[in-house]
Design brief:
- The complex is a heterodimer of chains A (149) and B (236).
- The longest helix of chain A has 24 residues.
- Chain A is elongated and about 80 Å long.
- In chain A, 23% of the residues lie in helices and 0% in strands.
- Chain A has three helices and no strands.
- Chain B is mostly helical.
- Chain B has eleven helices and no strands.
- Classes of the chains: A mainly alpha (149), B mainly alpha (236).
- Chains A and B meet through α3 of A and loops of B.
Chain lengths: 149, 236
């Protein structure tokens, strides 16, 4: 017992002795976006709500996938069914008033034009996203492309 | 005790009077027994009916618990901001007595298929998903989506509060005589395979027929591109 506590004391002393030298080396301050939360614990969820229906958003850069100007919570995009195509498929847009799927989406990866949306474009929300009221996690200095201002 | 004593001592009682008294006694006690039995029977029947109309009862079968219940848990009718829920029977069993009894009688067929194990694996369930879904869509279409309207009464919808798309679509759809289930399919459970002609054809998928919308002007409707599926499977 005594040996143990003595060892501990020695170790603590050694640590305290090395601390100033560490500070002198000026280590890089590493802080991830999740903060100091250990890996096996979770940060409390930040409640962010999808925004209500908007008119169509302007684009910020030329090749930007248009943003979704409406809520999409509860929409099924599964192997069985793609909810987006219920309104955005070409034959549905006249009735729904939605934007047509771009013609670029009819081309497969070999560059061949298909007669309907290419399966590689099936998962709409990989590129097109609805907007939420979430606050940006890091500072952002992005400015809109000059041609789109 | 005093009555009996009087009966015996009073000679003027008469045979007829005693007989009527006896008959009256029998009749009242029979009525009383029938009344109590009636309460017990009706109470029991009603309690059993109520028990079979709970979520716990529904998911006591693994067919429901492992398939549709799991899907339903991700939807707004299970969990939402205010905590008001629509459980299984709220949507799948009518509230009015006669339609409820009819539905309960139909449910005997479900008991048979439970015994036969028709949908006792996820594979079997998914193979039958389209048929099961269509049964329910047909039922709801037939009763004008009564179970939806038990809570969502569209006479009291505030279109100002609704999102733009919802407000316009609801009003046109109601004017065209459409009912909730015409658009709101698969909002509590995963949809069956629906053919949207993207990539390889889906095996056993429902291919909604392209039918020209009645409300559209003739000149527009003549263009086949204007045609619209009558039942756009939706989960808005």
């Amino acid at each position: 017992m005594k040996v143990h506590s003595l060892l501990k004391l020695l170790l603590a002393g050694a640590l305290v002795a090395t601390l100033p030298s560490l500070a002198a080396n000026d280590p890089v301050k590493l802080q991830s976006l999740r903060g100091g939360t250990p890996v096996d614990a979770d940060n409390p969820p930040t409640a962010s709500h999808q925004e209500r229906d908007h008119p169509v958003f302007d684009r910020d850069f030329v090749q930007q996938p248009p943003l979704i100007p409406h809520t999409t919570s509860g929409y099924q995009v599964t192997r069985n069914f793609n909810k987006c195509m219920d309104c955005h498929a070409w034959q549905k847009t006249k009735a729904s008033g939605a934007t047509k799927v771009s013609v670029t989406h009819f081309r497969d990866r070999e560059g061949q034009e298909l007669d309907n949306v290419s399966p590689r474009r099936y998962f709409c929300t990989q590129c097109h996203v609805a907007q939420t009221d979430a606050k940006p996690l890091v500072e952002n200095t992005f400015t809109r492309s000059r041609g789109l201002k | 005790m005093t009555d009996q004593y009087n009966l015996v001592t009073k000679p003027g009682g008469g045979r007829l009077k005693r007989l009527t008294r006896w008959a009256w006694g029998i009749a009242t006690s029979a009525l009383g027994v029938a009344f109590v039995l009636g309460i017990l029977f009706w109470g029991g029947f009603n309690t059993a009916m109520e028990v079979s109309n709970t979520e716990t009862f529904c998911i006591s079968c693994h067919e429901m618990e492992k398939n549709v219940y799991v899907e339903y848990r991700n939807t707004i009718h299970y969990q939402n901001r205010t905590g008001v829920r629509a459980t299984c029977p709220d949507c799948h069993v009518p509230k009015q007595w006669v339609p409820k009894m009819i539905r309960k009688i139909y449910a005997s067929n479900e008991l048979l298929h439970k015994a036969l194990g028709s949908i006792n694996t996820p594979e079997k369930f998914n193979a039958k998903r389209l048929e099961l879904a269509q049964n329910e869509w047909r039922r709801m279409k037939k009763n004008d989506s009564q179970e939806c309207r038990n809570c969502h009464n569209y006479s009291y919808m505030d279109y100002v509060e609704q999102n733009r798309r919802a407000a316009t679509t609801h009003q046109t759809a109601f004017n065209e005589g459409q009912t909730c289930i015409d658009c709101h399919k698969g909002l509590a459970h995963a949809l069956p395979a629906i053919e949207q002609h993207i990539g390889a054809p889906k095996v056993g998928a429902y291919d909604p027929p392209a039918v020209i919308k009645a409300s559209e002007p003739v000149s527009k409707a003549a263009d086949p591109a204007e045609s619209k599926a009558p039942e756009p499977a939706a989960n808005k």
